[in-house]
Design goal:
The complex is a heterodimer. By secondary structure, chain A is α+β, with helices and mostly antiparallel strands. Chain A contains 19 helices and 30 strands. The termini of chain A are far apart. The N and C termini of chain B lie far apart (about 40 Å). Classes of the chains: A alpha+beta, B alpha+beta. The interface between A and B is large, with 66 and 60 residues.
Chain lengths: ~725, ~150
């Protein structure tokens, strides 16, 4: 058993609820910092766990459900230590609040594969402390020793007499017990839920149409809005002739708002008809001539010099001079869209002194802030109702559509649901940045890599999203641009990775695994090139350079073994391997790829090994890694997003197709048995996929693909 | 007025004849289980049955389905007991879940015609249904499982 000393922590607070239940509040470490500056008497740890007299246990879930399974994994953590039936825990979405700031991300958000990592300790400790207080309350009632009582399935039982009291019966007296000085967590071997496949709590509602997404919200008097932005990035509205639009049956209003035009109607179809009848003149602005080729020239130009240093070890110049052999390559990743299946939407009901919004968002506090800014209402007058998210992948870390919805509602004088069309979504995304890298490495006479030089040119996400992170002058390296390059795990004595912020004007944002998805492709492909330059097996070559990296070796070896690494394959088929550390987890993938005579790429099998430390729900981990493979395959094989005349050329799934069922390879996922701290799960499956496939294509054809999406006709 | 028969009920709607069935269902009848994904018949999120055939409601004018029988995900069963719904839960198919109504309705039309579908049958029936979360492998497994459930009940 693990005893935790709480004397210096003081993060738990118990109180009696209205009506006599027990309320347990706790404060995440980061939230404690955020609240430290506030007056002491304002300090009120928010209720995270409530036990009512009727035995209802409620958990406030500070993470939103976007498919990653938090509505199951987070209550599992609580149920385990509290000793209650998981299926009976009632869930409530956390409102915006400093209490719910994520300790890793440092703001209130669901993203960065943090949910379980951030919640494991506080939820387990709060559950265990609550259990101990319930036992103490029962012992006091029965005048027995707490050690003679046990907690089981929502009851405290006196071991010898078999007397029992339910948690609801004990709640009020438990609330008056002191917080235990030492919290005793369960031994992992006694877990009922953690580490076992548990049925997702959200599945039943998702198979009968009853799961409520933002787009499904119905409230009395609700109108539907569409927003028409300038198709050219950075362009402005010049004028609009809305006479034909206003004549469309069902169209209620046309507004000039937020540097675009809004059409408000009695439903989606009339809004869309109205929109199509608009005659809008745009001032296209400075980017009207921008195209993909010009963007790539900007990147290429940037990398002719040394940029901000992201990593420096040894002496790269001298080592390159001494190398027996040098290898150079240029890699490129395009802008990538999110394509959440649920198009962006937000419902706003704005009244004189308060406002309700319904939205699938990864950032409830930012959503509230955005609406406050538009409406002038204080934050606490804006209630954010969280719905299921029809996909997030980073797109719903943004509030652009929420700001628009609030601005339209302010003019409409009625509740408004703004719905983006698929075309709006495809053409006005915040794209995973395009990235460009120049690599040079040196090998000694024995083929060992002695030096690694890398220039990266990439637009910065943080420059817009959280500029404070880049320092006062904004010159610090954006970690999301260099991850999986600046921190690659290979033991190479001389390394320099530098970074150029390039800003062609295309909006960029977080996207499932972000920079790891580009840099993982670059570095893990280039390592493969070095292995071949050294005349060695790519797996063995990696393992030699990872002598001190047991966990990444572990996933490489596991994936290789399960995939049958080294076993013969039919002609035209190749096997490629790659491993990337991201979001505190290690993932390796082996892809088996068949290339037809005319260059068609058929990914037949992907074997994944993930070491994400201690695990909560293994089936969800498998599902997340399977999904990550498909997500990454779309980026590796489909698209790309291209720019012409300052606009995105693609508009819907006909010109930006997603991977389909027929193209889905056989996917196997193996989870490393581990007692290490929990790592991320949603994203780490993405980065190794593209390099594993590229390396497999090389093995099959001898052709090295250094540009996504992969296309053998241009190789 | 346009009359449509949805899940066994007749509804009279005062809407434009070219309104896609999807928006009649969602905006006028409040049946929001059928989803909007692309509006161009490209993703399958909006699939419903029209006289038993899977149809993309986002491009189906409501005037074209008058006097036909429309079934939506809400009408597939009254208690989530359809073998596909059971199988979807057993195989833990949904992630975000948004595309799953369309997936299940497409699969239901397949199983109604081919109670023991091969992988090739599944490929050809399901290939137009996109899922961004990447649940395809589980969709395939769940369809086979649903077919087994149907056989065991037959």
């Amino acid at each position: 058993m693990n005893a935790i000393d709480t004397r210096r922590r003081q993060f738990l607070k118990a109180s009696v609820a209205v009506g006599g239940g027990l309320v347990i509040g706790f404060v995440m470490p980061t939230a404690r910092q955020a609240m430290a500056s506030e007056p002491k008497d304002n300090f009120a740890p928010n209720a995270w766990i409530r036990i009512a007299k009727d035995d209802t246990v409620t958990l406030i879930v500070a993470k939103v459900e976007m498919g990653q399974g938090v509505y199951t994994s987070l209550p599992m953590l609580l149920a385990e230590e509290l000793e209650v039936d998981l299926t009976k825990i009632h869930l409530e979405d956390a409102p915006p609040g400093k209490e719910y700031i994520d300790p890793i991300l440092k703001f209130q958000a669901t993203g960065g594969s943090t949910s379980v990592r951030s919640s494991w300790k506080p939820l387990s400790e709060a559950g265990a402390a609550t259990r101990m207080m319930l036992i103490a309350a029962a012992a006091e009632t029965w005048k027995v020793k707490p050690a003679d009582c046990r907690a089981e399935n929502g009851m405290v039982i006196h071991k010898t007499s078999n007397r029992s009291l339910s948690y609801g019966q004990l709640a009020e007296s438990a609330a008056r017990q002191p917080i235990p000085k030492k919290i005793v967590l369960k031994d992992a071997k006694n877990y009922n839920y953690i580490g076992k496949p548990v049925a997702r709590r959200d599945s039943p509602a998702k198979v009968n149409g009853s799961a409520l997404y933002g787009i499904d919200i119905k409230i009395p008097g609700l109108l539907t809005a569409m927003f028409v932005p300038c198709p050219v990035f950075g362009g402005k509205l010049k004028s609009v002739d809305d006479s034909a639009a206003k004549a469309v049956k069902g169209v209620k209003h046309v507004f000039q708002v937020e540097n675009g035009v809004a059409v408000v109607a009695d439903g989606f179809w009339s809004a869309k008809q109205g929109r199509e009848a608009l005659k809008v003149q745009w001032d296209e602005g400075a980017l009207a001539q921008l195209d993909s080729a010009a963007i790539e020239r900007q990147f290429e130009q940037a990398t002719t010099q040394i940029g901000n240093i992201a990593r420096k070890e040894g002496d790269v110049v001298t080592a390159l001079g001494k190398a027996a052999k040098t290898v150079e390559a240029v890699y490129h990743a395009p802008y990538a869209p999110h394509c959440t299946m649920e198009p962006l939407n937000c419902t706003v009901d704005l009244r004189a002194d308060h406002c309700d919004i319904w939205v699938g968002t990864q950032v409830p506090a930012m959503a509230q802030e955005a609406v406050a800014k538009v409406t002038g209402l204080p934050n606490e007058k804006i209630k954010v109702h969280i719905t299921y998210l029809g996909g997030g992948f980073g797109r719903r870390l943004e509030v652009d559509f929420i700001t628009q919805a609030a601005a339209i509602a302010k003019l409409a004088g009625a509740p408004v649901k703004l719905i983006w069309t698929r075309e709006d979504d495809m053409r006005h995304d915040v794209y995973r940045p395009a990235s460009f890298t120049k690599l040079r490495a040196g090998l000694d006479a024995k083929g060992h890599t002695t030096v690694w030089e890398q220039h990266i040119a990439c637009p910065s996400i943080f420059k817009r999203y959280m500029p404070a992170l880049l320092g006062e002058e904004g010159k610090k390296v954006d970690p999301s641009s260099v991850e999986a390059a600046a921190d690659h795990p290979y033991a190479i004595p001389n390394v320099r990775v530098d970074y150029h912020v390039t800003d062609p004007g295309v909006p960029v944002g977080f996207w499932r695994s972000v920079g790891n998805s580009q840099n993982g492709f670059f570095t893990e492909s280039f390592i493969d090139e070095l292995a071949h330059a050294a005349g060695q097996d790519p797996l063995k070559y990696r393992l030699q350079l990872l002598a001190k990296q047991a966990r990444i070796r572990g996933v490489l070896e596991l994936a290789a073994t399960k995939a049958g690494w080294g076993e013969p394959l039919p002609k035209g088929t190749g096997r490629g391997i790659a491993a990337v550390f991201s979001f505190a987890s290690y993932a390796a993938e082996v892809a088996e790829v068949e290339v037809s005579a005319n260059g068609e790429i058929n990914v037949k099998r992907v074997v994944c090994a993930i070491d994400c430390g201690s695990i909560v729900n293994p089936d969800t981990i498998k599902a997340q890694v399977e999904g990550a493979v498909i997500f990454a395959l779309t980026a590796a094989l489909k698209g790309p997003i291209t720019i012409k005349n300052g606009q995105v050329e693609q508009s819907n799934f006909h010109d930006y197709p997603l991977l389909s069922l027929v193209e889905t390879p056989k996917i196997e996922v193996y989870i490393v048995d581990s007692h290490e701290a929990p790592g991320g799960v949603g994203e780490p499956g993405v980065p190794p996929l593209a390099p594993a496939v590229a390396n497999a294509i090389f093995a099959a054809t001898g052709k090295r693909l250094r540009r996504m999406p992969f296309d053998l006709s241009t190789a | 007025m346009i009359e449509i028969n949805v899940n066994g009920q007749i509804h009279a709607l005062d809407i434009a004849a070219d309104t896609p069935l999807l928006w009649a269902l969602r905006d006028n009848l409040g049946l929001t289980g059928t989803k909007y994904g692309c509006g161009m018949s490209l993703c399958g999120a909006c699939i419903v049955h029209v006289d038993g055939e899977p149809m993309r409601s986002c491009v189906t004018p409501v005037s074209s389905v008058v006097s036909k029988k429309i079934k939506t995900i809400e009408g597939l069963s009254t208690d989530s007991s359809h073998p596909l719904q059971q199988a979807w839960i057993a195989e833990e198919v949904p992630q975000c879940g948004y595309c799953q109504s369309g997936q299940i309705m497409t699969a239901a039309a397949l199983l109604a015609k081919s109670p023991t579908p091969s992988d090739a049958d599944i490929d050809s029936a399901m290939n137009g249904n996109l899922c961004r979360c990447g649940t395809y492998s589980r969709i395939r497994k769940a369809i086979h499982r649903a077919a087994e459930i149907m056989r065991s009940k037959a």
